[in-house]
Amino acid sequence: MVYVFGKAITDETLRAKPEYQGKAITLNDRAREALIMKNSEDRDVMVRQQVEKLMEKVGVRVFTVCLIYNATGDTLTLVTYRDWSGHIGFTPYPPKIENGQFGVFLHVGDVDTSDASSVGAVVYRGKKMAGEDCDWMQAWTNKKSNRLILRSVKLTTGRLVMTESGTLSIIK
Fold first, then answer.
1. Domain coordinates of the chain in residue numbers?
2. Which residue in 15, 82, 144, 145 has its CB near the most CB atoms, within 10 A?
3. pTM for this prediction
């Protein structure tokens, strides 16, 4: 089961609104509407409830809950991931997250080692406002606690590539 929540915000969604009728809809329009609608219909509450259910299933000491909301105006597609310590939990990394949707996954720390930790990164590809490809990385380091530490990086040029050795490189 993949945890992706919410209805995608598409051109059709915007055409149903009076302010967009007869107007050419852009990536920027879809992104703006997705941001406006992020917490509409209590979607954020529903996502938090699902995250809490996921957390209840975890019988381990160290884990990281990752939540990605897509307000880019385009679909985010999984490019790569890396588990330095730990592994994906009960659900796979979402292969795609449509504009206006939440993607949720749980990364479980290795508990059979002396330094139980959840350390990883995931890279998604979408579009910049100019329509060019853009990669986003979400990375986390969570060692010996269930405290969440997230770092996000947005690349405006080039592509982020993860090598077999686990290093990250930017290809221009």
1. 3-171
2. 82
3. 0.77
